[in-house]
Write a structure and sequence with these properties.
By secondary structure, the chain is of the alpha+beta class. The protein is built from three helices and four strands. The longest helix has 12 residues. It starts with a strand and ends with a helix.
Length: 80
């Protein structure tokens, strides 16, 4: 379901400012399914998921709860 993390300059900036990671995901999956997948995969608490469709691809902005810094997950993924 989660295809890959996005490591653009804007996405890396969002890690620090908004405690948010950006992932490319499958088009068929809902916000609830994405939230559940991220929580189970990384053992963190997700506060909110926003999605974007662009160029026939779906992107998910995953905002983590304050007790789970996004920078920890980004480090595990090798983004930073």
């Amino acid at each position: 379901m989660i295809l890959k993390p996005i490591t653009s300059e804007k996405a890396v900036k969002m890690v620090d400012i908004d405690n948010t990671l950006l992932f490319q995901v499958g088009r068929k999956f809902s916000k609830e399914e994405i939230k559940k997948e991220v929580e189970e995969t990384f053992k963190v608490k997700v506060e909110k998921v926003r999605t974007l469709l662009r160029n026939n691809k779906k992107y998910a902005y995953v905002k983590f709860a304050k007790e789970n810094p996004a920078i920890d997950v980004a480090t595990k993924l090798g983004m930073i």
